[in-house]
Write a structure and sequence with these properties.
The chain has about 325 residues and is of the alpha/beta class. It is built from ten helices and 15 strands. The protein is about 30% helix and about 25% strand. A hairpin with a 4-residue loop joins strand 3 and strand 4.
């Protein structure tokens, strides 16, 4: 009988796990060719607007394999329900026996994404951060800001969102820990911040190349389908370093996919995150560089966080 681990227990276990370190190890394993990660399964919905992703795979010669189903339904807030939903399934890699069902309600996807953002900033953000810019006001926006404090702390924050009420709520919830300014536009974010995280499901570019300061780092989180785009393709052409969490996935989704499709960059110039964290020469070397990390979400992240939670559960028992 598979063990069922509910959300509250998952949150308790996470307190004792270094998720950023787990993400780093996962990306290294992935880029070094030590994983089996098939293409993403995807369902797109129109009424209401939403998407569901099925990501799965395993690390070679490991104990488990993982299947993750996660969705984002953006009108859920009107129903008082979180936009992120989902669960994780963990199986014995040698026998196929189900070992655990993690009823995380999308929480583990949110956490592993935020941890990946923190990892990206650790290696590519400028040494001196003037202010952090957050584009978006949902749960991922909040988690990205909080996780950034682990390696790239900065209390000066600018935030922009389409819905002014959501912006006010964002400030109310996080304002006691940060000095938050509300921007009137994404371009105002760019003018005041040299570390920017984009976290929206936008299908229209929000950040323009002309707005970005020299030395800015951008972590793009929201564009995880072929239709979404938060960064103008010209902006990726302007960047000194462009990083993909997964080069194979960047050929069908995300900011890199859009920029290559628009003829602004060549896919041959893109570096994979797991490769870059192992080589100082591939990381930021000057504060004047513009760097972009495009996070489309890779199954190895789900494998690493699911394993960590399950092992934590076994340890507690």
């Amino acid at each position: 009988m598979a063990t069922v681990i509910n959300l509250e227990e998952i949150k308790s276990i996470l307190k004792n796990i270094d998720i950023i370190a787990a993400m780093e190890e996962g990306f290294i394993q992935y880029s070094n060719g030590n994983t089996v990660v098939p293409p993403v399964g995807e369902l797109l919905f129109e009424k209401p607007k939403g998407d569901a992703h099925i990501k799965y795979g395993y690390i070679k010669n490991d104990d488990y394999y993982v299947i993750k189903v996660a969705s984002g339904f953006y009108d859920n807030v009107k129903l008082g329900i979180a936009s992120s939903q989902g669960l994780m399934l963990l199986f014995d890699q040698k026998t196929g026996v189900p070992k655990a069902i993690l009823l995380d309600e999308g929480h583990l996807t949110d956490i592993r994404t935020a941890a990946a953002g923190a990892l990206a900033a650790r290696y590519f953000a400028p040494k001196k951060i003037k202010a952090i810019g957050i584009i978006g006001t949902g749960i991922q926006a909040k988690l990205q800001l909080q996780y950034l404090q682990k390696h790239t702390p900065c209390s000066s924050v600018w935030v922009w969102g389409r819905n002014k009420e959501n912006v006010k709520k964002f400030v109310q919830e996080l304002g006691t820990d940060f000095n938050i300014q509300i921007a009137e536009s994404p371009s105002e974010i760019a003018k005041n911040c040299n570390l920017i995280v984009t976290t929206t499901p936008s299908e229209i570019a929000l950040l323009k190349a002309e707005d970005i300061q020299v030395g800015t780092h951008i972590t793009a989180v929201g564009s995880d389908t072929e239709h979404k785009q938060e960064l103008e393709s010209e902006l990726l052409k302007k960047a000194d370093i462009v990083i993909a969490d997964s080069i194979p996935q960047s050929k069908s989704r995300g900011e890199i996919y859009k920029a290559v499709s628009d003829g602004k960059i060549s896919e041959n110039t893109v570096i994979e995150l797991g490769t870059a964290v192992q080589d100082l020469k591939l990381q930021r070397t000057k504060d004047s560089q513009i760097t972009i990390v495009d996070l489309t979400g890779v199954a190895v992240q789900d494998i690493m966080i699911t394993k960590a939670v399950y092992n934590g559960y076994l340890k507690n028992k």
